[in-house]
Amino acid sequence: MDYSLSVIIRTKNEAKYLSKVLQRLKEQQYAGPVEIIVVDSGSTDTTVSIAYGFGCRVISIKEDEFSFGRALNIGIENASGEIIVCLSGHSVPVNPDYFKLMIEPFADTFVAATFGRDIPWPEACPSQARDIFTHFPEVGPDGNKFSNANAALRRGVWEKIKFDEHISASEDLLWAKQVMSSGYEIHYIPAARVFHSHTPALNYIRRRAYVESKSVNSFLETKNHFGIYRFVRFLLGHIIKDMIFSIRNRYSLFWLFHIPLYRLFQGVGFIKGYREGSNLQVDVLSKVGKYSFQRSQPKERRKVLLVTQCFFPDSIGGTEYATLNLAKNLAAKGWDVKIISALRDLSQQRYKVIEFQFEGISVIKINNPSELYSKFTDYFIDHTIDSIFKRVIRAEGPDLIHFQHTAYLSTRLPEISHQMNIPSVFTLHDYWYMCVRSQMIRPSEGVCPGPSDGLYCASCFDPAQPNVSAVPRFPIIAKVLQFPFIRFLNVKAWLSPKLKQRIKKLLYKKPEFVRPESHADVYYPNPDFWCILEHSFRMRFMKRQLSFPTFVISPSMYLKKRYESEGFREILYIPHGFEPQGTIDNISFNGRLVLAYMSNIVPAKGADVLLKELQYVKERQKVKMLLYGKVLDAIYQKHLEALAKEYPDVEISFMGPYRGKGEMKKILANTHLVVFPSLWEENHPLVIREALQYGIPVISSSLGGAPEAIEDGINGFVFDPYKDGDLAEKINRILENPELLKKITEGARNTKIESMTDHVEKIITLYETAIGR
C-alpha cells in the first residue's frame, strides 16, 4: 500500500548536510504522495534557504521554545500524511528504497513505528562509531533502542500518544515505552540505513551524555545509578574496546589519544546526569494502561482468563502465538477473553499492573523483572504475584482459567484458582514443571535423561542464574553461594538491578551446547544433600499444582508420555490447531537447494548445527541458507557469523525476525526446505506444521515432539542433531536425487494438520465439562 507520507526534519544550522538529505529524499522510488516539512529552531546559516530551494515547507520556532519532542509534535500537527517519517537534519538516507523499507511493516495495524539503522560518517571518531554500530547492529538489536532521528510512525498512534515536550532529550525512548506499554509494536529495519553521527568535540560529548542520562533517569520508575565503580568499569572497558576497534579499522594514531578523553568526558556527563535525573520524576510511564482492579460489569458472556508467562509485543514465541490464536478464536465463538502474563521491564516498578489491547484482545500484565534471588523457592513461588492474581480474579469474575504457563509469575496460581472455586484447565508447552531450565537439556552435555528425584536437577541448576545455561567461573564461590545461611541474608534486597546483572556476568559464563562425544572440559558441580532436597520438593510441589486443574493438556504425545513417566497425573493429548492455509507454489529446483532456518537465535535451537554440517555436504556450493529469527543471544549470533565465514562457497544470509503469516508465506515461497535443528526435546514446534500446511517439507530434529508430524522420506526427513553428518546425509541425498525433493514436497502438500476450528471445539468441550463439574 502506498501511504501518504509526511517527512519531518528537525534542523538548527544543518547547512552542511541538509542538501544531501533532501536530495536523497527526492530520489526515493516511491509512488505515493510525499510532503517534506522542515522544523527549524533558529538557524543562522543557510539551512532555511536550502529547505525552500528544495520546495520544502518550513516551520520556524524560537530557540528558547525548542525541545526535541516539541519540534516533532509541531511538525506532525502541521502534516497531512498517514505515516510520519522523522529525520534529523544530518541523517542522510543511503537507500533509494528507504521509504519502502520503512513503511512496509505498517501493513500490520499493530505496528506503531519503525526505526532504521544509523551508520557513522567516515569522519566520525572511533569511539562514537563503535557506539553507533553497537546500538544499531546489522541484526537485532537486543531490546528496543528506538531512535526518531531515523524513524517512521503511524499518525493515528501519535494522536493518542504524543512526544513529551518537557524532557530535554530521550523523548523517543519515553515515547517507545509508552507505545509498547499500550500494546503496539515497534520494528527495527536494519536495511533502512542513514549516515548519522555527531561532532567528536569533548564538551559536546560531555553535555550530550549529561542531557540524555538525566532525561532517561527522570522518567524511569526504577532509577539507574552511575557511581564510582560503574564509572571506572565504563572507562576501562570502553577505552580498551575503542582502541581495538580503532586499530582494526585503521584509524589514524591521533584517535588513540582522543579515545581516553572522549570516554572520560562522556563518563563525567553520565555521573552528573544520572545523579540529577534520579532526583526527578517525570510521572508518565506509571499512568500508562494502569489496571484499576475494579469489578467488571455483570457478564453477558462466559469469561475465560488465559494465563501465560510472557506475551506480545515484548515477547515473541510459540507459546505466545498459541495463546493469541486461541484467544482470538474463543472470542469469535462468543467468549469474553482476557490474557494475563508477566512483563519483565527493569525500568518500571516491580509488580506494576497494566492493561492494554493487543489485536483486539485485552491483556493484563504484571511487571516481574529478573532478580538475583537468594531463596530457592523464589524461582517458582511469588506470594506477591499470588495476591495480585487473587485481586484480578475478584475484579474479572471469570468462569474458567486456562493456564498456558506460569513461569515469571508464580507456579502456585492453579492452587489459588482452586481455592477461589474457579475451575481451570492447563496446557503444557515445555518441561518447566519438572525442569528448572524448562528444556530438559544439560549445558555442555545434551538431553537430560530425567530429574532422578532431584539429583540430576541439583547437579545442573545454578541457584544464582537459573534461566540460562551457565557454569561458574569460580566453583568455590558458587558453592558458597548455595549455603542456606547465605540465601537467608536476602542479598537481593540490598542490590540495585544493574549491580545484580554485573554480579551474574562476573561469576558465571555461558558454555556452548556441544555434542556429548566431544567431552568438553566443563565444570560439573557435585550436589549437596540440601540442594537435592530442594529439587525433590520442587517436583512434588509441581505435581501438586498440576493436580488442581480439571484437565491437563499436552499438544504432543512425547511431552505427555515424558510427564506421565515422571509420575505426573494423566494428561490429555490435544495438538495445537492451525488456521487453514492453501499450499503455495514454491520455487522450482534449478540445481541450488534453498534451506530456511526459522527460529529464535539461541544456542538450544541449534542454528550452529545447521552451519557445522556444511563440512559434510559434498556439493555445498549448491546450497543456500537463509536464517530467520530474533536474536536473543548476541554472543551466539557472533559465533554463527564466524561459522558462516568458514564457508565462503555457500551463500549464507542472516535475515532477522519475521512477523505473521504474510511474511512467512513470502519466505516459504522462496524456499525448498525448512530445517528445524533444535538440540532439546521440544514439545510441538509451530513452525514445522506451519511449513507443512503451506506444502513445504521439513528436515526436523529427531528429539521430543518435533518429528511427530514428519513421515521420514514422505513429507520430510528426521535427523539426529547430536550425530555428526546426519543432517548433511539428508542434504546430500536430495542434491544427488532431485526427484526426492519433488516426492517430499508432494507429501508435505498432502499432510493433514489439525484445524483451529477442530482444536477450539475440543477446548470448549473441556471448558464446559470443567465448569459443569
- Which strands sit side by side, in order, in the main sheet? 3-2-1-4-7-6-8-5
Cα-based radius of gyration, to the nearest Å: 27 Å
Largest sheet: 8 strands, mixed
Count of DSSP-assigned helices: 26
Task: Report the count of strand segments.
Answer: 26
**Helix percentage:** 25-40%
Shape call: globular
Q: Which blocks of ≥5 consecutive residues have pLDDT under 50?
A: 463-469, 512-520
Strand content: 15-25%
- Helix and strand content put the structural class at alpha/beta
What is the first-to-last residue Cα distance? 51 Å
Average pLDDT number: 87
Could you characterize the architecture of this molecule?
The protein is α/β, with parallel strands linked by helices. The chain is built from 26 helices and 26 strands. The strands form 5 sheets. The protein has an 8-stranded mixed sheet, sandwiched between helices. Helix 19 links the parallel strand 19 and strand 20. The two termini are 51 Å apart. About 2% of the residues have low confidence.
